[in-house]
Sequence to fold (178 residues):
Amino acid sequence: MRSWARTLDATMRASGPDLLAYAERLTGDPDVAATLLEDALTRTFGRGRAPETRDDARVAVRDALRRAAVRRTTPDSPAVEETDPFVPPEATGASSTRDTLALLAPRERAVLAMRYADGLAVPAIAASAGLHEGAVREALTGAVTRLLAAHPRLGLRLEDALEGGTLDSATVAVGGRP
Fold:
């Protein structure tokens, strides 16, 4: 067995379920998450020099997931520019926070997950996902504005979304979390 294949196998045994759960957190859809993970694995192990350790591979796959999630488009989701963040929740049919998250554009949902689930600041999200900071700020602004329009008591603050978080997107391998 080749070195990259052993690393891939070790990575998936140790972190496969966590990486799939992370992909689902970024996308909100188990089927899309599975496809996104397959694509991220192909990108990580299919080109050039593959990571040598399973921890390096886990981080590389996580970053590939982030890059893919923010670039994902869906035929049935409106473009970010076309959505109205001030539409009342009754008009969208979003009765729960989960329903509202499902209405977000793919990039908005992904950067929101990176900001709040991963605790990353705008510069760290931009670096990890391969975006300009302005694109991250725009997506976070749209996501937070839509969530607050639908659920004002959620406790989100736009200032916190744009200014909070950690600047380092590196992780230390201490557990099973991507």
